User: Which sequence fits this backbone?
């Protein structure tokens, strides 16, 4: 790549153009040379990882084998040390569960088809999970949140029953900041929580009613994400404590069910957002058989390490998940979901950062771990395993920076912040953005709950503060509607990549500071994350 020499160092042509547009001067830090974007290598990494040969990078597939080898070889070529003792790989024991997609859901006299009307899967490691004449109960949002004085399960026994719940939380429905967090989704609005809480309540099955606005994605995303092979960690009891059936239903499916129960779904839904809502038995019974093909296998997290000098036992983690959705069937045809933006773009970004820091003349004070986890798309599985089995105790992890989909278009004069007043890492983001002449822009869609939808959340649950860098649907309004978790998320040689270049430079600045100071960024708002960090004395 042609380069321009300046008093500050060497800048790529693309970087120089960005700086000229925004009036930005990227000042090198004390210990590092300015970040230089190798566009050719970046394109090669994304194009390879998102190629049909890699089969959509589904865990436990041939595509995983190629992906893990590619990342391991890349770390070796850079000269990074193994991230897990003497290995670049961390074995993640998993179950690969493929449900028979010919299943039908019957509710009373109604018969619904898988994929078009509903989806259903399980994490229980059993050849068949059945719902037999199960009583159906509508439990509103399916939330039990004492801190918000809200319990949709009050005064109702749902043991062995099928519950229908709404997506998101009452704050979004009312847009009232006094209810939960208003428009901003809380963790109680996430589908993962709803399944977990229903299991704690003893339910047999959960069906979440899909609507595009509160879900933040269309039915096609639900279908593609739930009708192909799924993965799960496995406990000693074959995940019997997990909910039996993890389901979704279309809005119109819910309307038909409620009509059969003599109720108007859309009217009942409005009441569910009011304090004091009481669950409603529908006096209908559900029947469903989820027949599974099960394979117990091992997937892999991959990581390379730059050991620190004076504070080598303190680690900064830079991450992007390597997996996507693999292959699925659409209209009788096999479709490869290559996930070029989500998240080959992020993985390639982490590789760029790893090369940059490895090439520095002076090693960082703290160690920097560059990670790529498996099975993010099926419930943060690789991240959960890493968080529970870290290469060093979590109290030694300073922070966890996470890229999940980069801006492959032109550069912009802002950077998105997910959450506000969450941790002191936000100050690092502010400073790095200011140094580039950019502003920090609040998440324009807090109702989407992106704080809880990527791998940094699993580490936050162990007390490790994190920052997420994500541009999905922001710089490309067409992305969520037509590309996200769809076959159209492919590499495009016409990508400008100006956004990638400026964001990697910004992240590089944050890493450099964290890797060379004595700071331990703290949680600001009271939360379970803050309490967990306090247990580690941080």
Assistant:
């Amino acid at each position: 790549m042609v380069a321009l020499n300046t008093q500050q160092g060497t800048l790529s042509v693309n970087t120089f153009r960005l700086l000229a547009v925004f009036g930005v001067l990227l000042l090198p830090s004390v210990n590092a040379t300015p970040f230089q974007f190798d566009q050719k290598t970046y394109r090669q990494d994304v194009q390879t990882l998102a190629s049909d040969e890699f089969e959509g990078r589904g865990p436990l597939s041939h595509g995983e084998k190629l992906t893990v080898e590619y990342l391991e070889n890349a770390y070796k070529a850079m000269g990074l040390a193994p991230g897990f003792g003497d290995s670049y790989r961390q074995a993640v024991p998993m179950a690969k569960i493929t449900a028979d997609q010919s299943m039908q859901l019957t509710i009373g006299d109604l018969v619904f088809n898988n994929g078009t009307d509903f989806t259903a899967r399980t994490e229980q490691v059993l050849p068949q999970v059945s719902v037999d004449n199960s009583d159906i109960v509508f439990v509103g949002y399916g939330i039990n949140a004492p801190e918000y004085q809200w319990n949709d399960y009050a005064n109702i026994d749902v043991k062995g029953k099928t519950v229908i719940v709404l997506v998101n939380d009452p704050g979004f429905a009312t847009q009232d900041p006094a209810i939960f967090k208003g428009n901003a989704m809380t963790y109680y609005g996430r589908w993962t929580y709803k399944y977990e809480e229903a299991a704690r309540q003893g339910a047999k099955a959960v069906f979440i009613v899909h609507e595009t606005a509160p879900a933040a994605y269309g039915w096609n995303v639900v279908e593609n994400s739930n009708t192909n092979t799924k993965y799960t960690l496995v406990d000693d009891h074959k995940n019997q404590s997990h909910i039996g059936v993890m389901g979704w239903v279309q809005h119109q499916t819910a309307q038909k069910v409620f009509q059969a129960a003599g109720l108007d779904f859309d009217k009942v839904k409005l009441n569910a957002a009011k304090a004091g809502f009481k669950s409603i038995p529908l006096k209908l019974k559900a029947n469903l058989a989820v027949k599974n093909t099960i394979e117990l296998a091992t997937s892999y997290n991959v990581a390379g390490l730059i050991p620190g000098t004076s504070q080598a036992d303190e680690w900064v983690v830079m991450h992007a998940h390597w997996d996507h959705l693999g292959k699925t069937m659409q209209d009788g045809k096999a479709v490869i979901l290559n996930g070029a933006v989500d998240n080959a773009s992020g993985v390639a970004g982490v590789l760029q950062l790893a090369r940059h820091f490895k090439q520095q003349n002076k090693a960082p004070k703290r160690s920097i771990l560059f990670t790529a986890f498996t099975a993010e798309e099926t419930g943060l599985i690789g991240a959960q395993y890493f968080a529970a089995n870290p290469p060093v105790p979590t109290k030694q992890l300073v922070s966890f920076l996470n890229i999940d989909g980069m801006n492959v278009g032109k550069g912009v004069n802002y950077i998105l912040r997910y959450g506000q007043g969450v941790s002191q890492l936000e100050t690092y983001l502010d400073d790095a953005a200011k140094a580039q002449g950019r502003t920090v822009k609040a998440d324009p869609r807090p109702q989407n709950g992106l704080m809880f939808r990527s791998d940094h959340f699993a580490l936050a649950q162990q007390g490790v503060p994190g920052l997420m860098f994500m541009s999905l649907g922001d710089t490309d309004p067409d992305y969520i509607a037509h590309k996200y978790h769809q076959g159209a998320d492919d590499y495009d040689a016409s990508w400008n990549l100006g956004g990638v270049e400026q964001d990697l430079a910004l992240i590089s600045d944050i890493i450099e500071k964290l890797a060379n100071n004595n700071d331990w960024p703290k949680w600001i708002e009271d939360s379970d994350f803050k309490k967990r960090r306090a247990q580690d004395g941080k």
Observations:
- Residues 412 and 499 are 7 Å apart (CA to CA).
